[in-house]
Amino acid sequence: MNRDEWEGANRELGELAVRAQALSRTSRGAALQNSGIAGTPIVASFSLALTRWLVDRFGENVSLDSSDADPEHLMATLTPLLDPIEREVLSEHPLRWTQWRRQFLGPQRAQHLRRLLTLLERLPGTSPERDAVFASLRVFVRWVVPIDAPVLSTGRFPAGAPRFHPRGLVKRALPARAWAEGKPARLRLDAAERRDLVDLARGTMTSLLSETDPFTCAHEGEVELHDMGHGVSVALFASIPEHKLALEAYVGYLLLKNHVPVGYGGGWVLGRQARFGLNVLTPFRGGESALFLCQLLRLYARRFGLKLFLVDPYQIGLGNPDGIRSGAFWFYWRLGFRPRQAELLALARAEALRIKPGGKRTPAATLRRLSHAVMAWETPLEAGWAPIDVEQVGAVVSRHILERFDGDRVKAGRSAKRRLGLRDSRLAVMLDALTPSGGWSAAELSRLNRLMPGKDRNEMDHARALQGCRQLMGRLADASGDTQ
């Protein structure tokens, strides 16, 4: 592809949106629903936060389509949010759902979704708690996508120079070679550009009828963009404070090639390790997937000073039939990732020798066994690192609460904060459960008291600063046990 072809393809996709919009208004338009093409409708169920973004961003183009919830559940959830006089009348004269909706959301169906969201925002509790209530209502929205919306077919972010490949795509890459390219260039963004990137990330996921927390609940002030060369750029996202994890830093990314979204995923950063996942969008699979992964590893390793990457087992097929069918395990194997469990490493080596001579396929049963592997790749950094298993740490915390506080988590939290003198409660119970035999050092607790507020301000900087809490990292590794 050259520049003329690239510009021509962008023009054609814009014209496709116009034609698709016209077709979607005819009797044949139903076939385009949920295609992700600009100009066509999307009907799906999303979180409260993403639904609010759709309504605020696209106004009358977004409406309430339906709800799969039981009408009695809908009314039981929503009625306590009405005015006291409205509730009093209802107690004397109950309504059917269709009557309830007309009386309290209005006769015009186009207004129902916006008014429903306004009603639900009266719910007490945190944003995640309100999201859980909204999810129970099983609301489906209808979005008539404008032709210039930031969705799969038309969403773009013009950052960095495009790269063309007269000799073909770059299909071979290795993480170590990408690492040698050094630290990527971070591009300057103003507030409007950060907002555009958030819109593009959300629009891309909405096109896929999906969402991910760092996009849906993005903190616009924390958005970063990095130029990786090769025509590749990567936008990093962190969530607003209410949606941040307590221990790990969940940093999502949107991957772009020549300004076009081609993949997404995230890294769960803790100390010098990150659990990692990559999702290349369907039209771009089988092309430069290896290059994309290597550049992502380079970015996360350099940005966060990482030693160890661990592949999310879902990526290689655990609970993911597509991962089994595609043989995703071997994609990571060819890039240098290896199972940490000795028996699965032995199985993989034997299978690699078996299939190599004739290019045979690995049986699905073998791939399902391999999908339980903890696949790892170590960066060239000299610093050693003992892996941390967050699930194991969580189990230690649960036992602590059950055995010492009879399951009373409020009491456990108060006790931990008081004993340790912590101002932030997020890690208090965990630190109490992991207390070393000689106790936590005053310096470590002082460091944590200084660092924890920074997680809300800038999660990416906080993730790197947390590496300095060496006593904490040591105790987390001890609690994880031997995961190999």
How does this model look, in words?
About 45% of the residues lie in helices and about 15% in strands. By secondary structure, it is an alpha+beta fold. It has 3 domains: about 40-145, no CATH class; about 175-380, 3-Layer(aba) Sandwich (Aminopeptidase), CATH 3.40.630; about 390-480, no CATH class. The strands form 2 sheets. A 9-stranded mixed beta sheet has the order 4-5-6-7-8-9-10-12-11, sandwiched between helices. The protein has a 3-stranded antiparallel beta sheet with strand order 1-3-2. Helix 19 packs antiparallel against helix 20 (about 460-465). It is globular. The mean pLDDT is about 95.
Briefly characterize the structure:
46% of the residues lie in helices and 14% in strands. It has 21 helices and twelve strands.
Helix and strand arrangement:
Layout: H1 3-24, E1 41-44, H2 48-58, E2 62-67, H3 71-78, H4 84-92, H5 97-105, H6 112-120, H7 127-136, E3 139-144, H8 175-179, E4 185-187, H9 191-207, H10 213-216, E5 224-229, E6 232-237, E7 249-257, E8 260-270, E9 273-280, H11 289-304, E10 308-311, H12 321-325, H13 328-334, E11 338-339, H14 342-355, H15 364-370, E12 375-378, H16 390-405, H17 409-420, H18 428-433, H19 442-457, H20 459-465, H21 470-480
Helix pairs in contact: 19-20
**Beta-strand proportion:** 5-15%
Oligomer: single chain
Give the biggest sheet.
9 strands, mixed
CATH T-level fold name of the largest domain = Aminopeptidase
Number of strand segments: 12
Quickly count the domains: 3
Mean pLDDT: 93
Head-to-tail CA distance between termini: 45 Å
| Rg calc | 25 Å
Unreliable spans: none
The number of helical runs is 21
Gross morphology is globular
The CATH homology group name of the largest domain: Gcn5-related N-acetyltransferase (GNAT)
Strand order of the largest sheet: 4-5-6-7-8-9-10-12-11
